[in-house]
Design brief:
The complex is a heterodimer of chains A (430) and B (197). Chain A is mainly beta and 430 residues long. Chain A is built from one helix and 35 strands. Chain A folds into two domains: 314 residues, Methylamine Dehydrogenase, Chain H (7 Propeller); 90 residues, Immunoglobulins (Immunoglobulin-like). Chain A is 3% helix and 50% strand. Chain A starts with a helix and ends with a strand. The chains are: A mainly beta (430), B mainly beta (197).
């Protein structure tokens, strides 16, 4: 039944007829019994989602093309022990597991889906959360019961240093997209520590409106960060350049209810706040820092005691981890179209013949995860002209008739077939 | 038998009479072909060498007939897109020359028809790869024969050939065919033997 639903989604989405944004469009229900996942991690290319289970000491593998759990990461060397959080390196080749109950970091190969070994260090005490620098060289790990951030060299899997933090009970760590700065949320101390990633130093502490800060996220532009205050049902806004709290997210309908997780779309326009006790997701418009609505669940409701949200690299879907054994699939919006599409008509002139062609160029959409572009000749996206790989941002349409108007629609497609909104360009041939 | 003998005698007399006034020139020549068509110049970089041979023989007094065969081949690139392309051109000239005697040789002017065959090879998967066709043009000739010794001569010439090969009638969809303008100036030299009495 779910496969049929997934197929329907694919077809409808691919043809450009989007679902109603911000609605639940499906669920993942075949997690092993008692998985009770603690977090969700989507691979950089958007093809696979990993589901750590603290209670089962397993890591589930979800095929995002079908939204079905296809298996577990095999664990031949016992490197998966009460996992809480997983990070995947930017190239998508290796996964790192925060084994919260066993003071180590497990390592697995994403190609073979098998563990490779573990990283041990005295500073790793109940490792809770992790970020990896954009170049994939280093990882920063927070420990639940040790006020340090551990820095690991991912080339050698050796701990480089441990950075002393300004508070206790560090929980979530988040890093700016450029990899220069990280914040660590101190749940017990109502503060954030500021980490200079380059120098590997703690450069200060942010205090203000926090109350049980449990999760945080930066906007892709690195201008703002949102911090979920689970104890007073608010979300703080931080000016990242100034390292200063500038206020609270405006929530006129009081939708926040023990906010426990936040994720921001790749275009930086929308943030989704998980309301753990409200069984809902609040939608925040980043430009105005205002809640504009909540995700309405379908019947029967699937959003039950939600705890975590992850958004696909193309920004089209959100996956909501519930307190049950069910993951809800949130349709956010069609991912944005490729930008700056342009067309030029030209001729290839020989001594005895002339070939007319149109050269179409574009730039990648602001989201990541595009694996190919499809170029159509009609707005209904049924006349496929060509498919080109993601690194080839142009298409040449050969053998055109003279003095004819051609319309092109360029669609970015990710590895599981999700299509973006089309970019349109019109060209009159020579 | 007598009849056959009479015929043989008549032919011998005619041949002897013709040989008495013969003057013919056989030469190999090389020239630079400078095209005058803009497209040809753009694609094939202002032309190149053209090679051939020519036979010239007296018809009546200072009037001579000539027949020539020349070959031109050049690689180039389409403008802007820079697709490799090659042209092969064979030209056969047939016409008349007027020679004016000088102490050191002859000055001449000529006019003739120029049947031309071209073959183009365009190295793009989006066009018709080969085009071949015959067409007819003309040639104007001017030059001097410089006698080097009794039998050898040097030919210095400047010719202008004009030819347009039409491809417009060809159904070469998806490309649009058009005429090939292969006119141009030739300037070069020949070297050969001259037999006369």
């Amino acid at each position: 039944m779910f496969k049929a639903y997934a197929l329907l989604f694919f077809v409808v989405s691919f043809q450009g007829t989007a679902y109603v944004p911000n609605t639940i469009i499906g669920t993942i229900t075949n997690l092993p019994a008692n998985t009770r996942p603690s977090s969700l991690t989507i691979s950089p290319e958007g093809t696979t989602m990993y589901v750590p289970s603290y209670s089962n000491s397993t890591v589930g593998i979800v095929d995002m093309a079908t939204n079905v759990v296809t298996g577990l990461v095999s664990n031949p060397n016992h490197a998966i022990q009460s996992p809480w959080f997983i990070a995947i390196n930017p190239s998508g080749t290796t996964g790192y597991i925060c084994n919260v109950g066993h003071n180590n970091i497990g390592i697995f190969d994403t190609a073979t889906q098998a563990t490779l070994g573990q990283i041990f260090h005295p500073a790793l005490q109940n490792p809770w959360s992790m970020v990896i620098t954009p170049n994939g060289q280093q990882a920063l790990v927070t420990s639940q019961s040790f006020p340090y951030v551990t820095v690991i060299n991912l080339q050698t899997n050796i701990v480089l240093t441990a950075i002393r933090l300004g508070g206790t009970g560090p929980f979530t760590i988040a890093m700016t997209a450029d990899g220069t700065k990280a914040y660590v949320a101190h749940f017990a101390d109502d503060s954030l520590s500021i980490i200079d990633v380059t120098s590997k130093t703690n450069t200060g502490t942010i205090t203000g409106t926090f109350s049980g800060p449990i999760a945080l996220a930066f906007t892709p532009q690195n201008t703002k960060a949102y911090v979920c205050n689970s104890d007073n049902n608010t979300v703080s806004i931080i000016d990242v350049r100034a390292n200063k709290v500038i206020g609270l997210v405006n929530d006129p309908q009081a939708t926040f209810s023990a906010p426990s997780s936040v994720a921001i779309t790749p275009d930086g326009k929308t943030a989704y706040i998980v309301n753990n006790t409200g069984n809902s997701i609040s939608i925040v418009e980043v430009a105005t820092d205002t809640v504009t609505g909540t995700v309405t669940d379908t019947t029967p409701p699937t959003i039950t005691r939600p705890r975590y949200i992850a958004i696909t690299p193309n920004g089209e879907l959100g996956y909501i981890m519930n307190g049950t054994n069910v993951i809800s699939i949130l349709f956010i919006a069609m991912s944005p179209a490729p930008i700056n599409a342009q067309g030029v008509a030209a001729k290839n002139v020989f001594l005895t013949q002339t070939e007319r062609f149109n050269r179409i160029t574009w730039e990648a959409p602001p989201t990541s995860g595009t694996t190919q572009y499809k170029i159509y000749r009609n707005a209904q996206l049924t006349q496929l002209a060509a498919t080109v790989s993601a690194n080839r941002l142009q298409y040449i349409d050969h053998n055109r008739q003279p003095k004819t108007t051609y319309n092109y629609y360029i669609v970015a497609v990710d590895s599981v077939g999700n299509a973006s909104l089309p970019a349109h360009v019109s060209v009159v041939s020579c | 038998m007598l009849h056959l003998l009479q015929k043989t005698l008549l032919v011998a007399v005619f041949v002897h009479h013709s040989m008495h006034a013969y003057d013919f020139l056989l030469e190999g020549k090389a020239a630079y072909f400078l095209p005058t068509g803009d497209l040809f110049k753009k694609i094939y970089h202002n032309g190149g060498g053209i090679y051939g041979s020519e036979f010239t023989a007296r018809i009546w007094r200072q009037l001579y007939g000539f027949a020539s065969a020349d070959f031109f081949s050049k690689q180039g690139f389409s403008p802007i897109v820079l697709t490799p392309t090659t042209v092969h051109m064979q030209q056969i000239g047939i016409g008349l020359k007027y020679l004016h005697d000088c102490s050191w040789g002859d000055l001449y002017l000529g006019l003739g028809a120029l049947p031309t065959h071209i073959k183009t090879i365009d190295c793009s998967p989006y066009v018709v790869r080969k085009h071949t066709k015959w067409g007819c043009g003309g040639v104007l000739k001017a030059g001097i024969y410089v006698n080097l010794c009794e039998y050898l001569f040097l030919d210095l010439f400047l010719d202008y050939s004009f030819a347009t090969i039409s491809f417009c009638s060809r159904k070469t969809v998806p490309t649009i065919p058009h005429d090939a303008h292969v006119s141009g100036c030739w300037f070069g030299a020949g070297f050969g033997f001259r037999f006369s009495n």
